[in-house]
User: Fold these one by one.
Assistant:
Number 1:
Amino acid sequence: MTHPASSSVASNAARGRRLAARPSLFHRILKWVLHVLTRACELQRLLSALPVQAQPPSDVVARVELSLMWSRVLPDLSLPVSQHQSFDVPRAVHYVKAQKHIQEPADSPFTAQLRRCLEMISDLGTLFERVTELQDTPYDSSQESNEAQLVELWELMMPEQQLSARVSNDWKTLGFQGRDPATDFRGMGMLGLKQLLFFAQQHNTQARGALTVSCHPERGFSYAIVGINLSSMAVEFLDNPKLHELLYHLSNQPECSKDSLVNFNDFYCFLFCEFSRLWRQVNPENMLAFNQIRDSLKATVTRTLEHNLEAVSAAIVAMRVLNHDANSSIQH
């Protein structure tokens, strides 16, 4: 198995508008007819009926994102939305209302819901920027914080075994390819380490369970290298508008975080758990089956996001609850 090729989120984001479903001619005609009949633009039709205090449903936020992405009336907002960049939300609210000649007071349901949707869409842009920064930051062994995170990863995953030396064959037990794991982070930069460490910190039971599966003497896999490859897969999923909708959905769940990077990392952990489950199910003879299982996992998750997004959300929420319960039992 090879290292994942670097796939910059910034370059992926440039494809976002092309990959999003372009409105069909029928859809554009329908929008025009509805605008004439209701005297309201698409954003008003989506948001005005929502209760002023309610969080906008994730599918509504996703539709607002696509509407802004393809808007010809809002070019100054369409550009950052389509390129997945953060933006000034109060200015964006004023801009939308001015450009579309919407006479709604600041405390109206429409204005409140527009602001919430734009906050979530801008936060998605912040996620892209943070992931890009982590991916573009190489692992630097001279940085004490990097070294401390690497040692913490070992201690969380191998609590019964003392690390004999910073550079040693011990790391191969954790699924790195050589004596110095720093060389394995080339493709994903610090994102690869951060997500391996997040899995170990936030979902330690599942992480160590996956490590146990990986350590099978004949039918195992390289845990850390697979984890870095799954970071690459998670980045690829950022191109999928359905992942955006999932992240919007998770941010509305009380068990999950309002921080989209945390929710994105939880999605990565979900991918790792599903990979481990699929590996056990297939029970391959050796690591040569990795690419086939990886492709099968990606196809399955893509279909599930498309047809049963709530199932992915429920699985991630269940992981969060299990982690919370485990931490509570330790504290008591």
Number 2:
Amino acid sequence: MAPAAACLGHGSNINTVCVMDASGELGLGLVQRLIQRDYTVHAVVQSHGDHHIKLKFDEISCAYKNKLKIFQSDPFDYQSIIDALRGCSGLFYTFEPPQDQPTYDEYMADVEVRAAHNVLEACAQTDTIDKVVFTSSITAVVWRNDRTSILSDLDERHWSDVNLCRNFKLWHGLSKTVAEKTAWALAMDRGVNMVSINAGLVMGPQLSITNPYLKGAAEMYEDGVFVTVDLDFLVDAHICVFEDVSSYGRYLCFNHIINRPEDALQLAKKLAPSTPAPPQSYEEDKRIIQERINNKKLNKLMVDFERGSHVE
């Protein structure tokens, strides 16, 4: 399947894309998969990123010479963003909290929003950029005052309520909602071709009980909207919406829902292996929470996606 760039600006290479921030597991996964699909990748990492990630990039560079260029960038250093985007036809953007400020709070929400604004503005100023894939979250969808009374399932049309997130200190939901809305507003105003991936809880090697997505997990479970996504599936979804010329708008991305007691227990043991065995009454609980969220739009798009195919 060929990439989406139908009309490219001067100086672009249809096979060259940028991954920002590549410091996290999603960014690293995207870099690896894109190179395997014969793209040249500009990988943007934090100046003080994870040492393991840096070693992994060294391995990739040795294996795929001339396919990977590393850029150190700060989302508040506008020129460094411009430099990383130069010559690229697409951008995969995902926010990674700074290494010295890993905790989500109200301050981090402001940081994420300003970073999204800077990156989209840089894309608008880069003639070669044809498409942006913006990583958001299911938490930008599910936190609504009417979430238990709404008649239809939650989908791409729904947004989390910013005031509810702020009142209950759901900082992850607040950050993702405002940052994504900021990106959409700027993209529409400046004519940037953007799609967003609203991901469930990412089931990757770095999953831990401190993940800010988990704030409000009990409520998401009871509401039938507690969803997870395997890291490989999430990577594939990003590449699919980039390469498919028909992709548009938002896409909810998950491939599992936590809606049974055994599902919740299994996740709890992954997050905290020392979790004690539940009481007998819990084991006898066969209740299944009705699923109240759907990702049909993405599933339809991915039907013909070939994971192993290369760019043309």
Number 3:
Amino acid sequence: MNVFTPKHHQWKATFGYETIDAYPVLSHPVTSQSIRPCYAPDHMTTAPLIFPNICTGFNQNPIYVARTALATRHSAEKRLQNHQSLVEEVSKNLENSKPVIENLDNLLKEQREALKEKEGGNCELDQDAKCLKTRLESLTSELKDLIAENSRLQDCKRELQAFIRNITVPLQIAQECLNLRESRSKNELVHDQVEQMLLAEAETYREHKRALGLLLEQCDNQQLQGRKIQNELENFIKTVQWIVVIEKSKEGIERFLGSQSNVEKFQCYFEHNQKFMENSKHFRDQIDANMKEAARDISRIWLKTNKCFEEHVTQLLQAKEEIQNYLVQVKDEIFNLERNLKYLKPKEHTRLALQQGEEQLKLLLRTKNNLQSILSSTTNSLVIDSDKCMSMRRCVPISIITGGLC
């Protein structure tokens, strides 16, 4: 091969095709010897991959493909037989489809007639269902009112329980005051007005606590009855809702309305619910009235006892002041008498005076001791009533106990 590289111009680049000459190939037909479906080098030890022919799509040469195509072609007789078979198949299918179509038409007509009859019967069913829905709505409304009433009754019960707990506070204070006053001195252990008021106060608290406790028990029974009616009403409403809303069958509605017991249950539940709600409202009003009455009584006797304490403390202060004045006077008299007896010389005409002075001194000393004992008892009573009892009663405002009901 002669290499030809023309360079007419130094600035012109040299391409590959300019340096290579074409090699002429002899023409011969494509045979199985010249086309190898498996491209593998000689002396290969492993089995090579066989790729299909890109041009024909077969693994063999085109001659084999042409022979195979000729063998698969049909004759004219075979084509007529196939056509005749197709015509017979179509005729047979058409004949078989006629009775099927007629049967379907008859069924469709029957279905339409049944639908018309059902629509006519649905008018009556709609009336019954509408009537049942109306009753169901009324019962549902009654159930909502009953739930609200049970909730109000529960709130009333909580208020009653809180009020009973609050009564315990002044009752304990009254009992503690009575116990503290028992520690007074013997001459001060008198059944005075303060003690009478404390006893009356404690008894009043016990009576109201006992009466409100009975109301609390009745409230529990009332709540139990309300929950029972609510449970029965909810179950009955669920049964009606299943028939009207979910099942929606004519037989079910007619069977339900045809039962006299079911019809009577509507009226029975309605009347029971109305009666219970009236009783519950009356019972709540009764509880409220008793709580207000108890709050007024507690407030009245609490203030009255406090007033008695204040009056008694004032009397004790006055008595203490008087005793202190008497004690000062007695001490002065004792001082003067002892001084005179000390400096007075005993003589025959003064002997009687000295003897009388000594006797008077003994009386004054005895009076002094009595005054000191009474002053100690009065001070002790004053500390108990003023500092201990009244301090406890001042720490608990009665408005907190009564809850603003009075």
Number 4:
Amino acid sequence: MGSLKSLFLLLFLVFLTPQLAESASDYTTLVYKGCSKETFTDPNGVYSQALSALFGSLVSQSTKVKFFKATSGSGQSTMTGVFQCRGDLSNSDCYNCVSRLPVLSDKLCGKTIAARVQLLGCYMLYEVAGFSQQISGMQILYKTCGATNAAGRGFEERRDTAFSVMENGVVSGHGFYATSYQALYVMGQCEGDVGDSDCGECVKSAVQRAQVECGSSISGQVYLQKCFISYSYYPNGVPGRHSSSASSSSSSSSSSSSSSSSYSSSSGQNTGKTVAIILGGAAGVAFLIICLLFARSLKKKHDDY
């Protein structure tokens, strides 16, 4: 019976593992928030209605594209907003990420006249008409460096080489690029309506900040107004990653002032399929063994009688 219980436990863990892996997905993790100090007074609910309509428009588009701008309301209650997903997310993951942002924005910022919420996989920004905040595309919004420093010599040289490849790739990839290089995984992305040349300059600026401020840290993220970069060092090799880039396209709508860009990438999909096949096979084997043991136990009881 002890072996039978162990097999039941194994089968339980096999079926549980995909759910644990799925819940471990980190693209919905909060990175930072930016909230205006000024709130809007809304006795008639006009601003709330415009904001709700804006959120609805942005979320609905996240099933189709990775970048979208929209306008809602009229007059003083006019609101503009934008969302963008990371270039390596699927359409369903993009939607899953963006659909969380309206609730998070309200929870973290309340009824402010402007707010930006950044998750690892996407961000959303909105502002009320008349809110003027001239910010350079190179303005830093958030920066974080890993607490652990790389051991041994040569790390920074390898990281800088990976950065150089990414700087070129994000231009040729029209706004998004990710690649592995000697145990390093680097990623760069620009806002969807930024031109290739400006994108390259923005990413270069973010890289320079990471080099200076993160030093030999094994990981880092730098978010500027119009782009972001991230890097991670895996001493035992980058797990299930490969180079990916993205192409962008823009569209406009007469019903609202909007633009969008769509990306395509297969990064990580092959790994997921392989894991699913392995787990399915393991579950099948465990189930077969349990059936055989159960049949044997029935036969033993019959022989005892």
